[in-house]
Amino acid sequence: MKIYIPHDTSSLSLGADEVLAAITAKYPDIEIIRNGSRGLYWLESLIEVETDKGRVGYGPVSIDDIPSLFEAGFPEGGSMHPLYLGKVEELEAFKRQNRLTFANCGVSDALSTEDYKFEALEKALKLSPQDIVNAVKDSGLRGRGGAAFPTGIKWQTVLDTKSEKKYIVCNADEGDSGTFADRMIMEGDPYCLIEGMMIAARAVEASQGYIYLRSEYPNTAKILQQAIDNAYEAGHLGKGFDLEIRMGAGSYICGEETALLESLEGKRGMIRYRPPLPAIEGLFGKPTALNNVITLASIPFILAQGAKAYQNHGAGKSKGTLTIQLCGNVKYPGLYEMDFGVSLKELLYGIGGGTATGRPIKTVQCGGPLGAYLHESQFDTPMTYEDFAKAGAMLGHGGVVVFDDSVDMAQQARYAMEFCSIESCGKCTPCRIGSTRGVEVIDKIISNVERDQNLELLEDLCEVMTDGSLCAMGGLTPAPVLSALKYFPEDFGLLPKKKAA
Ligand SMILES: Cc1cc2nc3c(=O)[nH]c(=O)nc-3n(C[C@H](O)[C@H](O)[C@H](O)COP(=O)(O)O)c2cc1C
Question: Would you report the helix, strand and coil content of the chain in percent, each value rounded to 5?
Answer without folding.
Answer: 45, 15, 40
